[in-house]
Specification:
Chain B: It holds the Pfam family BPD_transp_1. The structure holds 2 protein chains of 2 kinds. Chain A is an alpha/beta fold. Chain A contains 9 helices and 10 strands. In chain A, helix 4 crosses helix 5 and helix 5 runs parallel beside helix 6. Classes of the chains: A alpha/beta, B mainly alpha.
C-alpha cells in the first residue's frame, strides 16, 4: 500500500453550535478512488471543503502530501494546498470562455499576474499543457468551443481537465455527477476512476448514489451525523450498511 | 423507500385534513396603514409643487400661441438645418466621450466597490463613498464647476459627464458583479489564483454582457444629458435651442427639437439592437 497523499485526523466543524463533523479520520492514497457516502447533512461536502480551505475546520489535522497544513501559513500554505484540486457539483466554469481558456485557469497560480489578465497573454507552454489535459478527458476536439455550447457531462470533464492543469495529485469531487444524466454521470465516474487507477492520483468523491460508488470506487467512507460509520472496500459493503447510512433521509421524507 | 400505496385514489379526505386558516387580519391593517401614508404624502407633494390642473386649462391659449408661432418649422438649410446638424454632432460627441472616458474609473471603482471582488472591507467602503459622491452631484453642477476652470464650451460638458457617469456606471457595474454567480471565482481561488487573477478570469468574463448592456444604456442617457448641458452653455444642439428661444425664433427651435427627436430615436434603436445581439 502506498503512503497516503491525503491524511485527515479528528476533523471537527460546527455551524452555529451544531456539530457537522465530529472527529472524522480518513486517508486517501495514490491510485485509489474513495467514495464518501451519507445522507443529506451528514457532513460529506463539509469534509472536502475543510480540506480545500473553503470552509475552515475547528479542529483536526490535515496532511497533504506529507505536509501538515495546520503548521503552514500564507504563501507556503497556498502552495501546499495547490496539490489538491476541487471538482464542483455546479461545475463552476466560465460559460463565455472556450474550454481551453477555462482549463488554462487551473494553472493561474503558476503564471505571472500580468500574463494572466487575459487569455490573449497566456504563455504558450500553458496552452499546450491545457490542450494535453483536454486530450486526457477526451475533449481536445472541442477545445475552442465556448463552454456554454458543451453538454453538462462535457463541461464537468472540462472541469476535470482544469484540475489536471493545476497539476494536482489529489482530486476532491463534491457531488460531481449529481447534476448530470445517467450516461454522462457514468462517463465522468469512469474518468475519475481512470485518474486514480491509470494515472495514480488520489481521488475522493462525494456521491449521492451508492450504486455509482459500488461500481467505480475502491473504498467507501460512510458518514452519519458527522461521524464516520464505516471505511471499507466496496466489495465488503452490505445492504445493511447502506440502510443504516440513509436512515435520516428516510426519516426526512416520511 | 416509497410509501405503501393503496390504489390510485387521490380524493381529498376532509375528515382528516387540517382546516385551512385565513391570513391574519393584522396583515391587512398593515397594508391599509401603508396606503394611507402614501396618499398623505401625495397630498403634501401636490400642495408643495402647486400642482393645479385648472391653471393649465385656463392658460391653454398662451401655449397654443407659442406652438402656432413655431409652426411650420424653419427648413432653411444654411441658417437652421446645417447648424442644427453640426451642433447635434457635438452633442453626440459629448455623450460618447462622457461615456467611454469614464470606463476606466468606473471599472476600477466597481471592482473595489463590489463586496465579492473588493480586497478588503475598507476599500469597499471607500469605493462606495466615492461612487456615492459622483452620483449625488448632478452633472450640471460638475459642468458649472469645470466652466470656471476651462471656460464655456463642450469640453467642460465632457468632463462633467465623465464625473457623473463614473458614479452611476460604477455602482451599476458593482451590483452586476455582486449578483453574478460566484462559483467560478471560488473555483479559481481554490486552485490558488490570486484576487486579481480571480477577477480577471472569472468575475469579469461572467459579467461582460451585463457590462456592455449597462454601458449602452448609459450612452443613451448621457447623450440626452449632454442636451441639457448645452442649455447651460456646454455647446451642442441644446445651446442652439436655448438661443432660438431667446431670440424668439420659435420655428428654428422646432426644427432643432425635431432633429433631437431623430437623434434620440437613432441612439435608442442602435443600443437596443446591440443589446439584443449580445443577449442572443
Amino acid at each position: 500500500m502506498n503512503r497516503p497523499l491525503l491524511d485527515v485526523t479528528s476533523l471537527a466543524k460546527s455551524f452555529g453550535g451544531r456539530k457537522v463533523l465530529d472527529g472524522v479520520d480518513f486517508s486517501v492514497s495514490p491510485g485509489e478512488l474513495v467514495a464518501f457516502l451519507g445522507a443529506n447533512g451528514s457532513g460529506k461536502s463539509t469534509t472536502l471543503r475543510c480540506v480545500m480551505g473553503i470552509t475552515e475546520a475547528d479542529a483536526g489535522t490535515i496532511k497533504l502530501g506529507g505536509q501538515d497544513l495546520g503548521l503552514l501559513q500564507g504563501k507556503s500554505l497556498q502552495q501546499a494546498r495547490r496539490r489538491a484540486a476541487m471538482i464542483f457539483q455546479k461545475i463552476h466554469l466560465v460559460p463565455r470562455r472556450t474550454a481551453l481558456e477555462n482549463v488554462c485557469t487551473g494553472a493561474l497560480a503558476r503564471m505571472s499576474t500580468g500574463r494572466s489578465l487575459s487569455p490573449l497573454f497566456f504563455p504558450d507552454d500553458i496552452l499546450q499543457e491545457a490542450m494535453d489535459c483536454l486530450d486526457r478527458v477526451g475533449l481536445a476536439d472541442r477545445a475552442h468551443d465556448r463552454v456554454s455550447r458543451l453538454s453538462g457531462g462535457q463541461q464537468q470533464r472540462v472541469a476535470v481537465a482544469r484540475a489536471l492543469c493545476q497539476r494536482a495529485d489529489v482530486v476532491l469531487a463534491d457531488e460531481p455527477v449529481s447534476a448530470l444524466d445517467p450516461h454522462a454521470a457514468e462517463q465522468v465516474m469512469q474518468l475519475l476512476a481512470g485518474l486514480a487507477h491509470e494515472h495514480g492520483l488520489a481521488v475522493a468523491a462525494v456521491l449521492h448514489q451508492p450504486d455509482l460508488a459500488l461500481r467505480h470506487a475502491d473504498r467507501a467512507i460512510g458518514l452519519l451525523g458527522g461521524r464516520l460509520v464505516f471505511d471499507s472496500p466496496v466489495s465488503s459493503l452490505g445492504a445493511a450498511d447502506l440502510d443504516h447510512l440513509y436512515a435520516p433521509d428516510r426519516m426526512a421524507a416520511a | 423507500m416509497s410509501a405503501p400505496t393503496t390504489g390510485a385514489s387521490v380524493t381529498p379526505r376532509p375528515d382528516t385534513a387540517p382546516r385551512p386558516v385565513r391570513r391574519s387580519r393584522r396583515r391587512w391593517f398593515g397594508w391599509a396603514a401603508l396606503a394611507a401614508v402614501v396618499v398623505w404624502l401625495h397630498i403634501l407633494a401636490i400642495q408643495g409643487t402647486g400642482f393645479e390642473p385648472q391653471l393649465l386649462v385656463d392658460g391653454w391659449k398662451g401655449m397654443a400661441d407659442f406652438l402656432a408661432q413655431s409652426f411650420p418649422p424653419d427648413l432653411n438649410w444654411d441658417k437652421t438645418i446645417k447648424p442644427g446638424l453640426d451642433a447635434t454632432l457635438i452633442t453626440l460627441w459629448i455623450g460618447l466621450l462622457g461615456t467611454t472616458f469614464s470606463v476606466p474609473t468606473a471599472l476600477l471603482l466597481a471592482v473595489f466597490g463590489a463586496r465579492t471582488t473588493s480586497p478588503a472591507g475598507w476599500t469597499y467602503q471607500l469605493a462606495r463613498a466615492i461612487l456615492s459622491f459622483f452620483r449625488a452631484v448632478p452633472d450640471i453642477v460638475f459642468a458649472l464647476i469645470f466652466v470656471t476652470a476651462v471656460g464655456l464650451g463642450p469640453f467642460p460638458g465632457v468632463l462633467a459627464l465623465i464625473c457623473h457617469n463614473t458614479g452611476v456606471m460604477g455602482k451599476l457595474w458593482a451590483e452586476a458583479m455582486e449578483e453574478t454567480d460566484g462559483g467560478p471565482q471560488e473555483a479559481l481561488r481554490s486552485a490558488g489564483a490570486n484576487r486579481l487573477q480571480q477577477v480577471a478570469n472569472a468575475t469579469l468574463p461572467m459579467v461582460v454582457p451585463q457590462f456592455v448592456g449597462l454601458l449602452l444604456y448609459r450612452f443613451d442617457v448621457n447623450v440626452r444629458s449632454s442636451l441639457v448641458l448645452g442649455l447651460v452653455g456646454a455647446g451642442g444642439i441644446g445651446l442652439l435651442i436655448n438661443q432660438s428661444i431667446k431670440t424668439f425664433r420659435f420655428d428654428a427651435m422646432l426644427t432643432h427639437i425635431l432633429i433631437v427627436l431623430v437623434l434620440i430615436i437613432v441612439v435608442d434603436q442602435l443600443s437596443a439592437f446591440v443589446r439584443r445581439r449580445l443577449a442572443a
